[in-house]
Amino acid sequence: MESGGKKRLAIISVQKRYAEHAADLIKMFFADTLEFRCYDTEQLLEIDELQEECILLSYFTIFQQVKQKVRKDAQILIMDLTFRKDAVEPLKAIPGGTKALLVNLDYRNCMESITMISSMGITDLELIPYYPGCEWDSSIKLAVTAGEADLVPPGMERVIDLGSREVDANTIYSIAKAMGIENPFRDEETIRLRDNLVNRNLEMDYLFSENNNLSVQLNTLLGLVKKGVLITDVNGRVCMANQMARGMTKKYTDFESCNLEDILPEIELDNDGENADYVSEQLIHLNGRIVAVSVSPIESSGRVNGHIIMMEYFEQAEDRQHKLRKKLRDSEHRATYTFDQILGNSSQIQETKRIAKRMAQSDSSICLYGESGTGKELFAQSIHNYSRRKDYQFVAINCAALPENLLESELYGYEEGAFSGAKKGGQIGLFELAHQGTLFLDEIEEMSMKMQAKLLRAIEEQKIIRVGGRKLIDVDVRIICASNQELKTMVKEGSFRRDLYYRLHVLPIKIPPLTERKEDVLLLMDSLKKDIGAEYALTKEAEIILEEYSWPGNVRELKNITEYLANLGYPLIAAEDIPLDVEDIPDKRSKSSESCTEGETLRQFVLKALKRQEDEGGCGMGRKLLAELAAGAGFAVTEQKLRRLLHKMVEEGVITAGKGRQGSMLTEKGKWEIGDNG
Known about the structure:
The chain has six domains: 7-82 and 168-195, Rossmann fold, CATH 3.40.50; 85-164; 202-316, PAS domain (Beta-Lactamase, 2-Layer Sandwich), CATH 3.30.450; 339-512, P-loop containing nucleotide triphosphate hydrolases (Rossmann fold); 515-584, Helicase, Ruva Protein, domain 3; 602-673, Arc Repressor Mutant, subunit A. It is α/β, with parallel strands linked by helices. Helix 1 (16-30) links the parallel strand 1 and strand 2. The longest helix is centred in the middle third of the chain and has 16 residues, at 314-329.
């Protein structure tokens, strides 16, 4: 600080004369408290470091040249320029509708001048920006300039020079704030000077002055907002910004007093008071990311005094919409299964999983084929969780479970009053709920032809219309459908649309039935036992039964059998405990056995064994002994299977079933069957 206790203010412009002109006005407010130094940009080249506590720049464009030469504790301000009211007064006498060139250094200066003149209520004069190098209408004979008369093009009949623009009251406020001066407008003279300036934005700066408690409250509020917020005056000068906005724009210091076009050049401000309620929305690229931006005018007394700019990363906006959609349906749709939960060591299931993982990386439609109970929804959820859409909703619906009208309202949603019983406010459909995610259409073959046509249109256009509505709604949904019928056959029969088939059948996946991967049966059963907390073991014969069974109900049937055996409460499950039909378990005999006569059936073997027992003077023969003899003869037989066979033979009258240890014995009819008729 200089001797005498005065703080120092440096004023820097491209040409020193502009800096000195600005200093002349500023001195009227701070002559007793500040010391002034004026520089041009060429002088800066010879200076290692500026010693002043506050630096005032004529334009933001020279900021980069200056910031390397200021002290760390110095504050940098950007000068706002305006006109004196008495200088603008001659423009009011010009007839309405007159065209005039507004002459200045560049387009930006032209537009700032036009905005200021308009703020004075001079709106009937049609001012057209003119600056060196631009084209102009030679029929225009009136020029208005701001101290740049030497730039006026030839041929003008009249030139109105408003004089060099003055430093406006906003800048005076900013200097006072930076230097710790309480009130720069301390007497009648300074108040008169202030009031003679065109200060359309003075109310914005006053609103945000730290002497006003509202500023503190507003700063606190903006800090809680999860979006970037910028507040500007009517000319685009930034008056306030929250921390989120600073982070998004990579400007953590020297933010206020910047111009919006220097920070977000893609944003256009609407200063038309007639559109004060209008909110413009657009997407811009900012530091390598897509940002959703909304611009809302700040309107007071019928005119626009500034703007509020709200910024949000596009992916965050999408995520927020995603969460809101879930709340609108008051439901949670999630894919809980992954490929790791699809068990099986067989080559068939391993190959199917490999194909499904590759197809999951695509956004194309997938069609899952498989018998009932093979786990089509398990695969659908796993595909979703392996895709780029995994962070969004997995929405499933069974097309066979609802009548046509209900299926339509579920898929596409409906507007309020669309039909009797419709909810107040309407309801979003599953397509909207699955936006950015996956929609799983199970049993697609049951969908009516009318619904097929509407589904085709939604897939092709990626737009839907709610029932009873007119508005087209954009949706980005990956379709996975499932069928236990061959859709191609249905197309030939005329029960499924050919065009929809080709839309859905882009990536077909066939899920193998359990009968084609029997080596996985016991592995799956062990997993199912753990799920229900069962701990029983299986005999070897029981394992053979389970592995040889055809499993027409696939994994769903296996789950039922697992639960049934668990409820028996036996620690060891024998073959006869398993409730499966004998007809579905094929006989498999050892080809190496010499005891088994070629072509001999188990029935014939039992009859002959009972005949030998009788010939040797024995009584009947028990089921256990018969089973052992049959196994030794090469028959793949269990006690349960044998028990069913013996029961059938008793009903036919070829054997008798003795009580206790008597066992089974031949009847005369049985002897006749094996050729022993005496």
